[in-house]
Automatic annotation (TrEMBL):
Residues 32-41 form the Uroporphyrinogen decarboxylase (URO-D) domain. This is Uroporphyrinogen decarboxylase. It catalyses: uroporphyrinogen III + 4 H(+) = coproporphyrinogen III + 4 CO2. Catalyzes the decarboxylation of four acetate groups of uroporphyrinogen-III to yield coproporphyrinogen-III. Homodimer. Its EC number is 4.1.1.37. The gene is hemE. Pathway: Porphyrin-containing compound metabolism; protoporphyrin-IX biosynthesis; coproporphyrinogen-III from 5-aminolevulinate: step 4/4. GO terms for biological process: protoporphyrinogen IX biosynthetic process. It comes from Miniimonas arenae. GO terms for cellular component: cytosol. One of its GO terms (molecular function) is uroporphyrinogen decarboxylase activity. Keywords: Cytoplasm, Decarboxylase, Lyase, Porphyrin biosynthesis.
Length: 357
């Protein structure tokens, strides 16, 4: 299926947006900017709306998920919305017992540790993604010319939560499974790729104008393990979008050693964490649009320090064929939202020459 004529990328609502143009490597009137985890705990209006309610229930209530997605767009004037959901939403919708524990993250009722556990994982029925489609449709209607970014977890990042049973420091059990039982590990990654892929495709079909895969924990793997055991499954997540012509972004943390490999596995744009300067990243992936990479640790500093850092990121980003300013990872919950608004203004002002790429 190709995108329907009423899709915002097709009917022209977002096809000329700075974000979409930059992701496609075209000239933009200013460097576009959005922030990973821009929706969420840094915003008082989010805390008020959530007020102790269950996180996954909020994700599955279309009106709530849509409102939370729109909050940072209204407040900061960012160039994109990122759909408010979580990488484990499709896992829950497949029928796996998973919760999000406040202050901690996704926790499994029963971790998935053996070949038997993996074979028993239920398949996601795409019809069960209806609340996701509904939330995306409402959001896209409200956004008008601002593009919505769809997202999903990359197979290894999702698999880490399933195997570990929750957040972990270095994904040791997941990496141990890769060594102890490579076939079971491959079967698990294939399940994750199907599940994440269906989640991503549903968002794009419902109106998202770009798609980002979060390979957040790719950096805990060796280059060799990522290349030989994981990369083809990440590529399958992107391949779920076959036939839908939307720009795609691959983001991970600690991916410095594998940056040069990323463009070969399905993404058109490379997201860079805070560890690799963008000019260095541009040398690793010459000609590719880059997204990043303001250090989240800088957001609590006095404004002149933040400003100097953002200007440095912009300067280094000029080495790329196109640049979308973002953070090198998510917004820390304690961030003063006023700082994010000031960054958006700064980026728009200093790059509004009409000649930025
Ligand atoms: O603006 C946005 O980006 C909000 C939408 C969003 C996204 C893109 C949420 C809401 N989660 C995610 C993706 C996500 N979830 C990733 C990939 C991005 C990244 O690397 O940060 C990962 C790894 C998760 C898993 C997860 N969910 C964690 C991390 C746990 C760990 O291992 O360190 C946490 C804390 C959650 C819960 C969660 N998801 C989202 C929010 C706002 C929250 C906090 C819930 C709350 O209010 O308590």
């Amino acid at each position: 299926m190709t995108l329907p004529p009423t899709h915002p990328l097709v009917d022209g609502r977002t096809s000329d947006a700075a974000l979409v143009r930059a992701y496609r490597g075209s000239l933009t009137p200013h460097v576009p900017v959005w922030f990973m985890r821009q929706a969420g705990r840094s915003l008082p209006e989010y805390r008020e709306l959530r007020a102790g309610g269950d996180m996954l229930a909020a994700c599955l209530d279309p009106a709530t998920a849509s409102e939370i997605t729109l909050q940072p767009v209204r407040r900061h004037g960012v160039d994109a919305a990122i759909f408010f959901s979580d990488i484990v939403v499709p896992v829950l919708l497949a029928g796996v017992d998973v919760r999000i524990v406040p202050g901690r993250g996704p926790v499994l009722g029963t971790p998935v540790r053996t070949a038997r556990d993996i074979a028993d994982l239920p398949e996601l029925d795409p019809a069960d993604l209806a609340p996701v489609r509904d939330a995306v449709e409402r959001t896209v209607d409200a956004l008008g010319a601002t593009p919505l970014v769809a997202f999903a977890g990359a197979p290894f990042t999702l698999a880490s939560y399933l195997v570990e049973g929750g957040p972990s420091k270095d994904q040791l059990r997941a990496r141990a499974l890769a060594v102890a039982d490579p076939d079971a590990f491959a079967a698990l990654l294939a399940w994750c790729a199907r599940t994440s892929g269906a989640f991503l495709r549903a968002q794009v079909e419902a109106g998202a104008s770009a798609a980002q895969v979060f390979d957040s924990w790719a950096g805990s793997l060796s280059r060799e393990s990522w290349r030989t055991q994981v990369a083809r499954h990440t590529a399958r997540t992107f391949a779920a979008l076959d036939g839908l012509d939307v720009p795609t972004v691959h983001f991970g943390t600690g991916t410095g050693p594998i940056l040069d490999l990323l463009p070969h596995f399905g993404a058109g744009v490379v997201g860079v964490d805070w560890r690799t300067p963008l000019d260095e990243a541009a040398r690793a992936v010459p000609g590719w649009p880059l997204q990043g990479n303001v250090d989240p640790a800088v957001l609590g500093a006095p404004w002149p320090v933040i400003e100097a850092h953002v200007l440095d990121v912009l300067e280094r980003g000029r080495a790329a064929s196109a640049h979308v300013l973002n953070l090198g990872h998510g917004v820390p919950p304690e961030t003063d939202p006023e700082v994010l608004t000031r960054i958006v203004r700064l980026v728009h002002e200093v790059t509004a020459t009409g000649a930025s790429t």
